[in-house]
Request: fold
Amino acid sequence: MNALLPLVLALAAPSVPADALPTKEVLTLRAARSVADAAEAEALRRGATVVIAVVDDAGYLLVLHRLDDTQVASVEVGIAKARTAAIFRRPSKVFEDQVRNGRISALALPGAAALQGGIPIVHRGRVVGAIGVSGNTPQEDEDIAKVGAAVVADR
Reply:
């Protein structure tokens, strides 16, 4: 009888309705590469030396490009900007603006880098990842990131 118990319990358990487990769109490696490639092309067009980081919706690194002659310190900063945009589902500039406007408590948010240059990647109204760019001025970093994010943007 003990061998049948798991089967009996499985048959007696209520089933989960299909709408309780919706399908989740994810940022594929191929798409992440396209995002990074577009941002790299924009950086090269501008003559910018930057790091480009693309992460999934949980903030985990998928692609990293460090353009020639880019400072090494920008690697971790670019990843942090991307991670911030992904896990908070908004541009990292939001946190920089909060700090600038006196809300220094934003610096204590776990995983938040209060630095401009992280942009969420949105597909079908959902954040599927983010791109972070670091190495030049904050505005130029963000502008380059926006070009990359636009590759996957809702159409």
